[in-house]
Structure formats: structure tokens, C-alpha cells
Design goal:
The protein is an alpha+beta fold. The protein has 10 helices and 7 strands. The longest helix is centred in the first third of the chain and has 35 residues. The protein is elongated and about 90 Å long.
């Protein structure tokens, strides 16, 4: 009986030690997260000036707004988000937004909108870049892919909508005939996808014809911390 009581006492002590260790690990994890995380506003605040320069240079009025800058993300990830987000914003400005004269003919306001929004979905961060421009022309994409010899005419005729949109991310694909300072070199969105995939993230595209396009990035918010703890 004494041996049984001693064993039970030892077991209770062991459970208490394990519980203290679990609380210690949880507190340590929270401390590491707090030290490594920073608000996205640190990244977002660099974009308004970049859009303003484009507006002045190309005389294309655009209103830029960002939301969700208070969302926290690992510092390493934040640093790697700047380039792909900047490219998506420049891409929206160049490809998505029509010229002011065209917008007036279509009954739109002369000043277009480009928005950047971040939100949290569980352990992932969802970042959207969308505009109220002309949307996507799948017919144009197929023809450009044929002209660039990325696919044949027969292959283009059998492409689904999703497959046609994915042409945007092919190396060497461009929807403009002549390269300029903003686009036309066929390396942009391909590089963006590679950068997002390097963060274990995904990028998706949705659109409404004549109404706008949305690029959605879904990435882990604390990828570095997860690897460290494992």
C-alpha cells in the first residue's frame, strides 16, 4: 500500500512538472512571436508614394487605399513581400486601369481605384490587390500565348478559364506588344509567383469583365517561427 501511494504521489508530481513545462514552452513561443512579428503597415506605408510617382509620370489618375496594416507578420516574410506586392500594384496600374478617356467612354470615373487589403485567416495571412479597371481578356491571353509560341492554336482552343488565367504566370508571357518601364518583359508575374511559393504561399486571380481584377496572396503569417520551434 505504501509503495502504491508513493507511486501515485510521484505520478502527481510528474504531471505538475509537465504542466509547468508546457506553460513555459507556450510562454516562450508567445515571446518569440512577439519579438519576430511586426505590423504590415511598415510595408504598406511605402506604396502610396510609389503610386503617386506613377500617376505623375503617366498622367493616369488613381486613388490608392490600403487596409489591414495592423495585421502582424513575421519580419522575414514582411521583407520578402515588398517586391511582389509592388509589382502587383504596378501591374494593376499598367494593365488593369484604363486611360482616363476610355474610362469616361465606359461611364466610369476618370480616377480609378487600386486597393491593398490584408486580413487574417487562422494561421495564414490573406493579402489582396484589386482594381476597378477593365478586368481580364481571356481571348487576348490565348492569342498572345500563341503569338509568343508558348502554346499552339489547338492547345489554346482547349484551355479552360483557369488554365488561361495561369498563362499570366508563364515566363516570357506578356500582354503588351512593346516593353516599357512598367511591363512587357515577360518576367513579372512569373517572378511574383516564385517569390510567393518560396514562402509556402499561393496566389490566385479573379476578375469581372469590365469591372476589375483581384490578385489574392495566401501565406503563412509566421513561417519562420514554426520552423524554429519544430
Amino acid at each position: 500500500t505504501e509503495s502504491t501511494e508513493a507511486i501515485e504521489f510521484f505520478i502527481r508530481q510528474t504531471h505538475q512538472v509537465i504542466e509547468r513545462q508546457q506553460r513555459l514552452v507556450a510562454n516562450l513561443r508567445e515571446s518569440i512571436l512577439d519579438a519576430r512579428m511586426q505590423p504590415l503597415s511598415i510595408v504598406f506605408q511605402r506604396f502610396p508614394q510609389a503610386i503617386e510617382r506613377l500617376v505623375e509620370q503617366y498622367n493616369k489618375p488613381v486613388v490608392f487605399k490600403d487596409y489591414g496594416g495592423e495585421e502582424l507578420v513575421d519580419k522575414v516574410i514582411a521583407n520578402q513581400l515588398y517586391d511582389p506586392l509592388l509589382h502587383l500594384l504596378r501591374n494593376a496600374f499598367d494593365h488593369g486601369i484604363e486611360a482616363p478617356e476610355m474610362r469616361k467612354k465606359l461611364g466610369k470615373t476618370s480616377a480609378a481605384q487600386i486597393n491593398l487589403q490584408a486580413s487574417r485567416e487562422g494561421r495564414h495571412l490573406l493579402i489582396k490587390v484589386w482594381d476597378n479597371g477593365q478586368g481580364l481578356s481571356l481571348k487576348t491571353f490565348r492569342q498572345k500565348a500563341i503569338d509568343s509560341q508558348l502554346i499552339t492554336a489547338a492547345e489554346a482552343a482547349n484551355l479552360t478559364q483557369e488554365q488561361t488565367i495561369n498563362l499570366l504566370f508563364e515566363a516570357g508571357f506578356s500582354t503588351v506588344d512593346q516593353a516599357n518601364d512598367l511591363s512587357g518583359r515577360g518576367i513579372g508575374l512569373n517572378a511574383v509567383r516564385a517569390q510567393i511559393q518560396a514562402l509556402n504561399g499561393q496566389i490566385n486571380v479573379t476578375y469581372r469583365p469590365g469591372q476589375g481584377t483581384c490578385f489574392a496572396l495566401r501565406i503563412p503569417a509566421n513561417l519562420t517561427i514554426t520552423k524554429l520551434l519544430l
